[in-house]
Design brief:
The protein is of the alpha+beta class. The protein has 4 helices and 3 strands.
Length: 225
């Protein structure tokens, strides 16, 4: 079986070789025909349209651009010549002789001259201050007048309350003003009674040295049952 198969293969090889040769010859014939057709076509085109001569290249000349002008450097400033100031000529002082003054004689009073006005009289002297003894005596009289005008409150008298209050007031021409409690007694009824005593007191006339003066007094008002 194997022998028959090999024989059939070898028998088919020559047939295939003949087929390949015929195909190659056909392809070569077609290529030659195409090459002849292309050559004839090129010849025909060159005959109908001969090649034109190549024109010489035209040289184009560019216009030269003038260079930009360089900036001119500024001129250096010229030195300013200072004109010297004229010197001042200071004159030398020449000593002058001192004139001798003659004594001026006092003018004699004219009999027709207006008499000068008298000078302004001096201010009157301040009134003399009263002596301490005189002031202490008048102070005692003022205190006695306030104490004499005191009305002891009945409510405090029944309970036998005691105390004292210090009152300040101003006295001018025998009239009191601006009375106020500066030291309280601790009882409102006593303080009110002390102010009423200062208001209702009959003050003595001040001495001559204290006439016309306004003085501030402070007195103790005693409350004893």
């Amino acid at each position: 079986m194997r022998t028959e198969a090999l024989e059939s293969v070898f028998a088919a090889v020559p047939e295939k070789r003949e087929g390949w040769l015929s195909s190659f010859g056909l392809a070569l014939t077609v290529e030659l025909v195409l090459l002849a057709a292309v050559t004839a076509l090129v010849f025909l085109v060159q005959t109908l349209h001969p090649p034109t001569e190549a024109k010489a290249p035209v040289a184009i000349q560019l216009a030269e651009v003038p260079p930009e002008p360089k900036p001119t450097p500024p001129e250096p400033p010229r030195p300013v010549q200072k004109t010297p100031l004229p010197r001042k000529v200071v004159p030398v002082p020449v000593p002058q002789p001192t004139p001798v003054q003659q004594p001026v004689k006092a003018a004699e009073p004219s009999p027709f001259a207006e008499k000068s006005r008298p000078a302004t009289p001096p201010a009157p002297p301040a009134p003399a201050q009263p002596s301490p003894d005189l002031l202490a005596d008048y102070m005692a009289k003022v205190r006695a007048a306030v104490q004499a005008a005191l009305v002891y409150p009945e409510s405090a008298s029944e309970m036998q309350f005691t105390g004292r209050a210090r009152v300040e007031f101003r006295l001018s021409h025998g009239v009191q003003s601006s009375a106020r409690i500066i030291v309280s007694s601790g009882f409102r009824v006593f303080d009110r009674a002390a102010l009423l005593a200062v208001r209702d007191a009959q003050y003595p006339q001040p001495p001559a040295a204290m006439t016309g003066e306004s003085r501030l007094f402070q007195v103790w008002v005693e409350f004893r049952s």
